[in-house]
Amino acid sequence: MTAPVLEVTDLVKYFPVQRGLLRRTVAQVKAVDGVTFSVAPGETLCLVGESGCGKSTVARLILRLVEPTSGSIRLGGVDVTNLTASEMVPHRRRAQMVFQDPYASLNPKLRAGDIVAEPLENYAPMGRAERDAAVAAVLEKVGLRAEMMRRYPFEFSGGQRQRLGIARALALRPDLIVADEPVSALDVSVQAQVLNLLMDLQEEFGLAYLFVSHDLGVVEHIGHRIAVMYLGRIAEIGPKDDVVTGPLHPYTKALISAAPVPDPRLKRERLVIEGDVPSPVNPPPGCRFHTRCPFAIPRCREEEPALREVAPGRHVACHLVAG
Amino acid sequence: MSGLETAPAATAAPILEVSDLRTHFFTRDGVTRAVDGVSFTVAPGETLGIVGESGCGKSVTALSVLRLLPPRLSRIVGGSVRFEGQELLALDEPAMRRIRGNRIAMIFQEPMTSLNPVLTIGDQIAEAVTIHQGKNRAEAMRHAAEMLRLVRIPDAAKRTGDYPHQFSGGMRQRVMIAMALSCSPRLLIADEPTTALDVTVQAQILKLMVELKQATDAAVMLITHDLGVIAETCQRVIVMYAGQVVEQAEVVELFDAPLHPYTRGLMASIPRIGGGRKRRLAEIPGIVPDLRKPIAGCPFAPRCPMARARCRTEPPPLIEHRLGHLAACWYAGEAA
Q: Which of A45, A65, A129, A215 is most deeply packed, by most CB within 10 A?
């Protein structure tokens, strides 16, 4: 077993809710509340869940775009949780990010070439010719033409912008790319282009991805392993096929059952769960899912289930799962 | 889910008949032909899905039917929209208002911005019946509570006094549905009604819509980009591309035997649960055409794997290739 490119242990992030003139903290939004996982080199781990489950916060915590409340983050075996900004610099090139919104995440006043060159120049000052050659090489890798480096973001389509965002992340040849809903703003025909590109790049460069998404179809397509999050915690984690074809946690079952299937002949019994996701300010006691779980027993209301290994590589946080 | 497919006889006179609809936007950059010759019908009690990607004109088609487009920016430049035999494009604004929210109602995508934040939920549902059915306030509020019960909001009578911010996203969409159904419309237009919702809430709302549809027997025009939603709720489907209808068929027929290369491409590009990782997704290369520029032949030709010389010069007409199955393609159904 090779050393993981990313190891996250007991990660917690509470956002304070402040009120009044003195901005007193009156409550905590428990966005991420004890999350542990790792990503192996060349692997795609997908974080899936609905709005407010904390999946995007996890992504941002890993790159220290927000500071964790507690827990640890190890990149390539090095604990980066408490490094200062300057100590962090050499580690940043190991992990890069691709954002959801291809419109908001590119500076409209910079040319495409400058956007892609910026991370390169941060680490190695280079001459014009060298820079242009490096940018051209990266653009070509993501399916853009070299001459496009002189264009501004508004001259690109949504799919091309997302390619540009991927080129920027790829420029430093990171070990890990954290992608937060990278295709959810794109139409399906363009989404397919970007998913294929991400998979091609993984093959070519041995990249690992932490891929955050709400779309199980996308996750199942691109992932090797899937972690399902609910209200700041991991409900279930395991190899992709196992999680999708044999979900163990009732929430995973509901998520898979709820996804609309493009097959009008398919008539299936649906597990439609009632209600909405409760507020992460006051998550339900016991199992966080018990308020919506059709199978909940009294124990679920009192005791929070731990994430236990029920089969090799397969972890579930549910009292009702044997093993 | 056994869907909405209690199909009425296809021969019944349509409740809505749209022919050769053309809606253009006039901007500083030129004229955008957002809807460019769209024709379709909706039968009473039928659910028609309109599917397509961003900018294909599906929402503008819906807004054109209700004449809700910004008047300075856009104009319906041609065609006809007949509802229950009446030409809507010829009506004046007061007559149109008697139809909106009454005979034809609409559900919008964004339940956050479609509700008025400073009015109670009860007042917003009561508004339509006060205007269209002349009910007094007490009657209207009772009706509002009944509608909330219908969309399965617990404690309905009490919650009519609540404001939108006290409701979650899924509950707000239920309120939107209650508002839309309050006057028992004969046609309900739903524009991406579940797109802003989480998938477990989407499943709840779709289930509710299917049940209410069966209870009220209104016709539904469901606009979505999601072929999964189409498959689970619609009887008949039209596929739009670049402001035009490129294919139209019964839902099972469309999924079994799509004729237009665009529909085929769309279906092949969806990652499905159970599809596996090894299969490379089919891509549709390129991007949608700029609707400000004239399109010479088929609008899909520049991205089409089957395009030949004729496709680039002659626009293909939407014609029936099999019973009830229309496609606008010179080589419809041929293997790529």
A: A45
